[in-house]
Amino acid sequence: MLELRDLSCGYGDITALRSLSLTLDPGKILALIGPNGAGKTSTIMCLAGLVTRHGGEILLAGKDISNLPARARPSLGLAIVPEGRRVFAELTVGENLIVGGHTVDRLALQRNQARIFEYFPRLRERRGQHAGSLSGGEQQMLAIGRALMSDPKILLVDELSLGLMPKMVDECYEVLTQLSAAGVAIMLVEQSTERALSAADHVCVLEAGNVTWQGSATAAHQNKEVIEALLGTNTG
Amino acid sequence: MLSVELFVQGIVQGSIYALIALGLTLVYGLLRILHVAHAALFTLGAYIGVLVTNQTGSLPLALAAAALFAGFVGMAIYKLAYEPLLSRPPYIALIASIALFIASEEIYRITFGPYGLSFVDPPLQGQIQLFSGFYLKHGEVLVIGLSVTLLGLLAWLSSSTRTGIAWRATVTDPEIAQACGVNIQSVRYLNFFIGSALAAIAGVLVALLNNLVEPTMGSVPSYKALAIIVLGGLGSIRGTLLAAMALGVIEAFGTIYIGRMLDRDAIAFAFLIAVLMVRPRGLLGAR
User: pLDDT tens digits, residue range B3-54?
Assistant: First the structure.
């Protein structure tokens, strides 16, 4: 489904990620973990087309999308839930969803909106409210909902749990699990190793732009000391 | 009854300010550029309005031609002058904008002559009586009616169409709007087209009220519109409309009651200073 070959990216002369190769299949969840500045967010933003690729390839269903502009990617099935949620604060909840579904037709717009209101009933209650007036957890739900409006095949989720109440995070993860069961491939950046290991099928550890460990979640559990050591060297 | 009369005159003038300043706010909101050359499109609209009316005798046609032509010129200004400068600090674009504005005045002078143009047969010169002793020119009725219609149309476009909603999303966060599939380049073109078309319509309306267009008619509106968008709280559309109307009304009263101390065009700045002392971010400024 999604395949990265030697992907490198960064800002100007600064390299944020060096030579990342991985494959993400439909219905699977891949977690990127690592200390701050490891290149996790840059990777997600590069896949969305918002950070400059320095080298390597991004293949989506076998097709090279490396050179496509950001705005051409959602219609190919790529959607992003960005770090810090970045909902359109001055727009209402309903309007945020409409922008999320910018690439789909009117019929799909209504169908997807109904589906998102089923996932997150709170959003239905707040549909006429400005997104800026929502709580952090509600904004996170809206950011996920906005991404789902385009019928994504691959969902990129950045720092879902950051600064949220555990109950809200559980609710969001519950939806991600349902989505993955429905065949959506999910790549998530997660600061909590615990959450990442319990949700993901595949784990990729980044450190200072380099991949230091990659493997299945089961293998990650067995090598928990190794991974914690990798993360610990930079966080502690 | 004098106060009602002054109030209505203020609303007429305020409507024109609103039409001009709105384009400026739209550009500032989207690109953070102070688009001084915007007033050049106001003058352009006025010239087209007079020329087309004199040729065809039709004011509606003149309004449409002015709006369309200025709209495309506005898009060209974005493409040729601002887009190449977007990665530079905003004052570079401001310098380009001022240069464009000065050049435009000279172009109008060379093309249409220094003395200005008038309508051969000025349209809408009739008057209607609102109440005893108070008359309003048909042209003034048109100013209010057209402004209300256009602003209403714009409000509808920005809140009830997918394009309009995507436009507002782009103003809030262009990067994420792009990631949602919005073509922000088209949004910018649309933005310049609409803003410039509104300024051109304001130009035709001013030409109608004064029965005169001249190369420098944009200079006072250019700095007054800047004062208005600062007053309104940079980038706030509602703030801009409020500030435009308030300034129109205050000028109308000021000309009568303090006109001997303060020139009409100075009132805008006295008002600006007074408001900024109390509310440094403008009337409805959020950020």
Answer: 888 999 999 999 999 999 999 999 998 998 999 999 999 999 999 999 999 9
Residue ranges of domains in chain B: 2-125+135-278
What pLDDT sits at residue B240? 92
Q: Collapse the DSSP code of A220 into the 3-class scheme (helix H, G, I; strand E, B; otherwise coil) and give the result.
A: helix
Three-point CA angle B20, B21, B22, nearest 5°: 95
Question: What is the ipTM, given to two decimal places?
Answer: 0.92
Q: Which residue in A52, A99, A112, A156 has the most chain B C-beta atoms within 10 A of its own C-beta, making it the best mutation to test that interface?
A: A99
Fold of domain B2-125+135-278: ABC transporter involved in vitamin B12 uptake, BtuC (1.10.3470)
The pLDDT tens digits of the residues spanning B125-156 come to: 888 887 777 888 899 999 999 999 999 999 99
Burial of A118 (0-12, 13-18, 19+ CB in 10 A): exposed
Task: With beta carbons under 8 A apart, name residues in chain B contacting A50.
Answer: 175, 178-179
Cβ–Cβ of B182/A102 closer than 8 Å?
yes
Q: Spell out the domain ranges in chain A.
A: 86-151
Residue with tokens 């600090």: B89
Total Cβ atoms within 10 A of residue A29: 24
